[in-house]
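Entry 14. Two folds queued back to back today. First construct below, sequence then structure tokens.
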Amino acid sequence: MNTTALRAQIADALKQERRNPRARALLQGISRPAPLSDLDLRRAEAFAEAYVARVPELVDEALGRAAGTFAEPKLRRMLEVALAYWEEEEDVIPDSLGLLGVLDDAYATLALVQALSLRYREETGHALVSEDVGVGNSAARALLGEELSDRLDAFVDDALADRALQELLAELVEEPLAPPPPPVWEVDALAFLLAGSDRG
């Protein structure tokens, strides 16, 4: 899947959400230690939109840095693996459910990108993408709930165990990319709350 198709899928999900708002009710229905307030539900919805929108932006940023280099075809194949969940017919959350229907896809992709980036940083000192997606992923995991998140983490674990993906990462480490640019997305304070971090 290219990012043009990905952006179209996200835009379609957001149109569905605006025609038939369901995200807040679905979020409230997910089992979690404490229910979200009306204010937090509104902020959670805004966070989810921003989180989902970052997927194609981060993919394009990474591919742009690799353009014309030894790393480009290898990084492209790695990102294709990370985006594979968007094409799964058996979603954890059906795509027909608007914003929540693509939140699971975004989490599956960004959780895998986070894992790959951590391994890459251990070897090169630099991340694969321009920001640490860990806080956003923790917040998305909290929104999705433990049961759904565990099913998505199983997809990530299977992808990481794939020998071809491991070989691609090892080849990237041999000829590292230039360091990524500074992050451009500020995670909403709700993300820190959901991730269990001190907001200060």
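Second construct, same run, same settings:
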Amino acid sequence: MLHLGFRVVLVGLLLSLVSGCASKKITSPAKEVAVSAVNVERPVLSENLAADYQEALNLMQQGRYAAAKTSFERLLSIEPRLAGAHTNLGIIFQHNNDSVSAMAEFESALALNPRNADALAALGSMAIQNGEYRKAESLLQEAVDIDASLAVAHYNLGVLYELYLQNKSDAIEHYERYVLLSPDRDTKTVARWIKLLER
């Protein structure tokens, strides 16, 4: 039972880190991705705007959230159809513990691109925090259906199935996917969780 308590604390910590891109496990800055399966107009960025977008991503990865926020807001004032900029603003707002603004940004991202897996995964993680487990399951499953390589969504589905929905087999499946996909050091810990669930 000790491992369960540890995981609950770890889940809380990890969910709070969703906002901080310092940990790639939970989320990383969203990039603009063309999606051919949905008729979504993707803005074409000038070379200068593309460089500014990359610089904003770099600021986030360096933990310079205030500067990144200013950069993304400026980019959106020039090109308001950047779903990835909205997603990254949502991550920044989460980092600043402003869940209302974060949710609004993730929803704006999805209004522009309904197949934005990063925004879906972030909303799924917020739904777990809010105790909306079936909503979280739906959002996270949609995220992995769109991007099966999104490690954070598999991790959060594993946690959701193990701790809240009491579904060991699905928890194991998503933890195993996370271990395969994640470059993070904590995969050994998650692999131990899998062994405990298989008992």
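Quick look at the second one. The mean pLDDT is 82. Residues 2-17 form the longest helix (16 residues).
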